[in-house]
Amino acid sequence: MATADYFWRKAAEYTHRAEETNDDEVRAFFYRLRDAWISAANRNEMLESLDKCAPLGSSSDVSMSGAPH
What we know:
single chain; mainly alpha; elongated
């Protein structure tokens, strides 16, 4: 599984590419890619923090709605 660090590196890569180009459409495209990688990094970090905070075995005790079984 990819780590948040990988996602942040990809976001930085596309920021750099956007800053290098002179074409406005290409720049906008690279910024959209950057934003997608930032979103992925943020989601990954959130899931990693939830995994660290969740007690073992708690996933079977609560449904996706948050209500106990």
